Amino acid sequence: MRIGIVNDLPLAVEALRRVLAQAPQHQVAWTAADGVEAVDMALRDRPDIILMDLVMPRMNGVEATRRIMAEAPCAILVVTSDIESNAAQVFAAMGKGALDAVDTPLLHGAPMAGRHPLLTKIDAVGRLIEAGSSAPAPKTGERAATRHLVAIGASAGGPAALATILKELPAGFSAGIVIVQHVDARFAQGLAQWLNDQSALSVRLAQEGDRVRPGEVLVAGTDDHLVFKSPERLGYSSEPADHTYRPSIDVFFRSAGQFWPGALTGLLLTGMGADGARGLKELRDKGHLTMAQDKASSAVYGMPKAALQLDAAREVLPLEQIARRLTDLPGLRLSTKGLSE
User: Fold this and answer.
1) What own/partner pairs with CB < 8 Å and gap ≥ 24 does 121-124 have?
2) Quick check: is 230 catalytic?
3) 4-aspartylphosphate (modified residue): where (predicted)?
4) In angstroms, how far is the first alpha carbon of the chain from the final one?
């Protein structure tokens, strides 16, 4: 894969080059010292993946990500020092279309056992780029009509899209919401807290054995797959072990379609690749309402496009209309009552 490096520190660039040299299939296409130069290089020579730092002169990584995704879209992986301390900027960059984040490798340090995390991330992004979107075999099933779950999947651009939706939902929103966002497990707690700060609803990480409750938002919190293990009971599963996406939206949507006993709305937001499209199709085949974000409002029009190619979404909506559509669904009302135990 051809890779662009954006970092203003020569030692960091050299460290990145050394790690990439361990994988001959990857080639450094160019390097840029700041966001302005990165945008220019991406327009002139678009690579497969850009390794984007956050803190740089002239133009930071968040704005550079926004510009590149608007003008020369390609896969962007945030690679920066101390990513936990820069969590807000990481989420901001993901909101503009970055796929994931990883620490900048050290030029001088103890040898690392096994494959370097940067190469693992790049391989995952490569599989994401190549992910197919062929239609699945339809399944049959019955749709129940009591209580309501909104199941949401998102990837690149997802944090900002999720914040836009959640901040528009009222505190008494009577559906339970479960979100699978492609994000490294280290950032999951920070993502949930960031969304909670912007929403009238309670947002927290999903725990093993959780129930879905009205007015509460549960976010997948590990690198294992979030699934329903029984009606209304959530948990985590390592299977399928070889799945490209961890956690997988497809895996979650399928488990929701299998176990959830009430009304269900599936929503697929911005993201690269095709994860969630097949699962959304299976939800539609079972009679559930399915929605996808439209092209104009998507930071990355990959997953919603794959859903449309499968005829998986009954409705396609701009981001700014999704919250209103959810509150207008039949049977959803303002309520402070919890689900029965």
Assistant:
1) 121/77, 122/1, 122/3, 122/23, 122/26, 122/49, 122/77, 124/100, 124/244
2) no
3) 53
4) 51
Q: Residues 4, 295, 242, CA angle at the centre, nearest 5°?
A: 60
- Percent of the chain residues past pLDDT 90, beyond the cut: 63
- 189 vs 20: CA distance, rounded Å: 30
| Residue tagged 């129940």 (tokens) | 144
Global pTM value: 0.77
Whether residue 182 lies in the annotated active site? yes
Strand order in the sheet with 263-268: 202-205, 216-219, 176-181, 148-154, 263-268, 289-293, 315-317
pLDDT band at 142 (very low <50, low <70, confident <90, very high): very low
Out of 275, 285, 297, 298, the active site residue is 275
Question: What confidence tens digit (pLDDT) does each residue in 78-103 have?
Answer: 998 877 777 888 888 988 889 888 88
Task: Produce one character per residue of 104-125: b if its CB has 16 or more CB atoms within 10 Å, e if not.
Answer: bbebeeeeeeeebebbebbbbb
Tens-digit pLDDT profile for residues 265-306: 999 999 988 999 999 999 999 999 999 999 999 999 999 999
Joined tokens for residue 272 = 């690269």
Q: What is the DSSP string of 260-276?
A: --SEEEEEE-SBSS-TT
Catalytic residue among 26, 53, 100, 155: 155
Q: Where are the beta strands (DSSP E) in 97-182?
A: 100-103, 148-154, 176-181
CA-nearest of 262, 21, 275, 233 to 136 is 275
Which of 148, 182, 225, 288 is catalytic? The answer is 182
Dihedral angle, C-alpha 155, 161, 162, 168, nearest 10 °: -170
- Cα–Cα nearest to 271, from 125, 156, 151: 156
Calculate the CA 8 to chain-centre distance: 28
